[in-house]
Amino acid sequence: MKPTRSQGKVKARFSCSVGFIPFPSAPPRLNPDPSLSSASSLLMAGLGAGLGARPSAAFEATCFRPLASPPRPVRSVKLIVPKRCFTVSSRLAWVEDELMETTKSQEQISVKSKKRPPLRRGKVSPQLPVPEHIPRPSYVGSKELPELCKGQLHDAQGIAGMRAACKLAARVLDFAGTLVKPSVTTNEIDAAVHNMIIEAGAYPSPLGYRGFPKSICTSVNECVCHGVPDSTQLQNGDIINIDVNVFLNGYHGGTSKTFVCGQVDDSIKHFLKAAEECLEKGISVCRDGVNYRKIGKKISKLAYFYGYYVVERFVGHGIGTMYHSEPLILHYANENSGRMVAGQIFTIEPIVTMEKTECVTWEDGWTTVTADGSWAAQFEHTILVTRNGAEILTKL
């Protein structure tokens, strides 16, 4: 939950064989040469061949005669590319084992997900209850967008409170990831996460924020962010971002991660790895006195290097006793002024898309998807700025 800015394989065909030719069990018998002893005859014939001369008939007959029996039959192992075959002898069984393991793993990752039709809104179940004894944020009950407050600086007590809230959010997100499986609905994930949060004595921050009806955001495939959990079933090959925010003892903590459902191909794995690395690059520049704009420059430079694009519409934000506050963290190259201060806590949460595209928000006012259907991925951490760097509060 975040404010807006206004607010490969190499295909080749080949075959090769690796064989082991056993030496004869007994030394070869040579025909005697009238002028030389049998040992001298063999030696001179070999030397002559080494110097470029044609070896004698005795040397050829001895060292190049065919085997008495053909080598033992060998097994073949098929790789992913059709008609590609390796023949390996039993003497090189370890090579065969390695090839079989490689084949098995490659077959698993080569299973490409079926082309899924565009996302459609499913059935949204009623809002889940929260026990009365759990404190609620001030915005609950209002459908108005809360005013963005000024930056929050945290003292030792505030930092301790933020650490506790962020650690809970991280544990909840880790649990949510275990629920991502084919046929599971996003509503089921929301319900399980909701129960975990309230059992910890916390309130799910998104619930009731400007009327948001659920406890987490679940953004599948082309959904950029703020997906509303509903009856949508996950399918093998999907990706899903789960955004978890909790309100514990007066402090908000938030984090998100994009998970894979079942098996995905290498291109999707590369995409997700690049998106997570963009977050890490943004965090790496954070420390007391550094310009905020360096975060966006680092993120966008890396995303473009990998051939992906950064969504400019959504930003990171300050967080603490207030859900959203200054500073607003832009994830793209910009020239905004402002420097980080030790004691600040804010989120960095870049959204990366596979293609350059616009974003479209559904009629529910929340779910935002790419206009062309290209997939999006997001990773988020809450960090504390220190004099020497940044502490990731939502890292387990």
Automatic annotation (TrEMBL):
Described function: Cotranslationally removes the N-terminal methionine from nascent proteins. The N-terminal methionine is often cleaved when the second residue in the primary sequence is small and uncharged (Met-Ala-, Cys, Gly, Pro, Ser, Thr, or Val).
Taxonomic path: Eukaryota, Viridiplantae, Streptophyta, Embryophyta, Tracheophyta
Binding, substrate: H226, H324
GO biological process, one term: proteolysis
Domain Peptidase M24, first and last residues per copy: 161-386
Entry protein name: Methionine aminopeptidase
Cofactors (names): Co(2+); Zn(2+); Mn(2+); Fe(2+)
Cofactor detail note: Binds 2 divalent metal cations per subunit. Has a high-affinity and a low affinity metal-binding site. The true nature of the physiological cofactor is under debate. The enzyme is active with cobalt, zinc, manganese or divalent iron ions. Most likely, methionine aminopeptidases function as mononuclear Fe(2+)-metalloproteases under physiological conditions, and the catalytically relevant metal-binding site has been assigned to the histidine-containing high-affinity site.
InterPro entries hit by this protein: Creatinase/aminopeptidase-like (IPR036005), Pept_M24 (IPR000994), Pept_M24_MAP (IPR001714), Pept_M24A_MAP1 (IPR002467)
Reactions that this protein is recorded to catalyse: Release of N-terminal amino acids, preferentially methionine, from peptides and arylamides
Comp. bias (Basic residues): 112-123
Enzyme Commission numbers on file: 3.4.11.18
Pfam families: Peptidase_M24
Annotated binding of a divalent metal cation 2, by residue: H317, E349, E380
Region (Disordered): 104-136
Organism annotation: Urochloa decumbens
Family: Belongs to the peptidase M24A family. Methionine aminopeptidase type 1 subfamily.
GO molecular function: initiator methionyl aminopeptidase activity; metal ion binding; metalloaminopeptidase activity
PANTHER family documented for this protein: METHIONINE AMINOPEPTIDASE
UniProt entry keywords in alphabetical sequence: Aminopeptidase, Hydrolase, Metal-binding, Protease
Coiled coil: none
Binding site for a divalent metal cation 1: D243, E380
